[in-house]
Amino acid sequence: MTTTGSEKMVDSNQKPLNDSTAADLDPLAALGYKQELKRNRSLFTLLFQSLAIAALPFGEGGPLLSAIYGGGQLAIFLGWIVLLILASSVAVSLAEIASRYPTSAGPYYWSYQLAPAPNRTLLSFINGWVWLIGNWTITLSVNFGLASLITATAAIYHPDFAAEPWQLLLIFYAILLLSFVVCTFGNRFLPMVDTICAAWTAISIFIICIALSVRAAAGRHSASYTLGHYDKSLSGWGGFTFFIGLLPAAYTFSAIGMISAMAEEVHDPTIKVPQAIALSVPVLWFFGLFFVIPICATLPPLADITTAPGLQALPYIFHTVMGTSGGGLGLMFLVLAITAFCSISITVAASRTTWAFARDDAIPLARLWSRVNPGLGVPVWALLLVTVVQMLLGLINLGSTSAFTAFVSVGVQALQVSYGIPIALSLFSKRVQVSQARWKLPAGIGTAANVVALCWIAFEVVLFSMPTTLPVDRTTMNYASVVLMGFMAFAAVWYVVYARKAYKGPPASDGL
Questions:
Q1: Each residue of 161-176: b (16+ CB within 10 Å) or e?
Q2: Considering the entire predicted model, what is its pTM?
Q3: Alpha helices, DSSP H only, in 117-268?
Q4: pLDDT higher for 399 or 292?
Q5: Which of 22, 180, 222, 422 is most buried, judged by most C-beta within 10 A?
Q6: What is the spatial distance between Cα 103 and Cα 85, in angstroms, rounded to a whole number?
């Protein structure tokens, strides 16, 4: 076990701290770690960062083509309604556990504390890698999606323009480098950036709602058509088509647990972290209604949208509905800015997850990645690792036009599995630990939420392994499962070669 600048306060082999000891110590010390990051965030900045990570217009709009193939208006609107219940169940289930164990280590730390003693070290290692992969690839999906949106926006003025894969890759690399610089040198300004992002997002949704509703150059649909039109002829999935249409809404809510990585940068984390996780879903869902309904009411013909440049539906829809290139570009500028904010916020969260996992000696060169720069107060090497991993995975785009779908899918799959393991462990242990958390649900409601969350997670993992359309070929295949299994194979090799002897799991703790 390494003991670098990220030295643990309590060794994994020591006995758990009891409740009275935990009450007398710093919250992080009670969980077995040394405080290294500055606690400069509040409930509202945590909530704003969570909303920035979700990036509603991008989260729903980036993969919107899946909802078009998934039937159109019914899948978009009803999918948004259904996801309120499903995503809320996941959020409150995670919030209870985060209240009990508020550390940047997140789900793999929770899994270690909740699992039976004989299996908890291996289980936490597995879940830690799944959690890490989810953070890396969901961050990659945002940055790659931003690059795709930029090239698709250029097609508003140049309809014949189609970015070559290498051009898209260079734009993607430029976005990564810019995010790295901002996250490294602007850490003390990031809570303010998240606040600005939240305000910008609310204003942008209002502007988009009004602009689309008033202009409606492609025509306005009736209320029944707006909320109920369903065309299952485009995807090739037949009766399963509707579920393909759930992908954008599911993607939007997929990263709600990532805010747990910021637990060591907020005061009173046992209350503020779970509040931020739980509140993010209803707040995001409410604003989402003002985004999805105007789109449903003014959508151009679905078949036309499937031919959108760069396989990005949103720029095409905005251009067509606004009726002018300037109008479409104006609305896309708002979305691109939101996505740029999201790139920063989600990169920060992913870097904290990487740093925390390295702190427990679970990845190669852990001693390097677990360093915190004393002058900047930032895990710079962990940030660099997140950036380099994304650059390498971005090369997949050179061989497959469905790279964005793969990045989205593997990110969602990995995050959901990492959520599901501690939720299942808590449920199967009769919720003993979460019943002692400061933020918790009544027993009956909590159990119901856990069950719904686990059922949705299981279905979601299957759903995001499927291609959007049938039949498939080499370039349209969904390679998410291949990428995920490749990462897990690497983790397995590392475990056999080194980690099975060196990795002892995170510090044992009775929680807070």
A1: eebebeebbebbbebb
A2: 0.91
A3: 120-157, 165-185, 190-215, 223-228, 241-244, 247-252
A4: 292
A5: 422
A6: 27
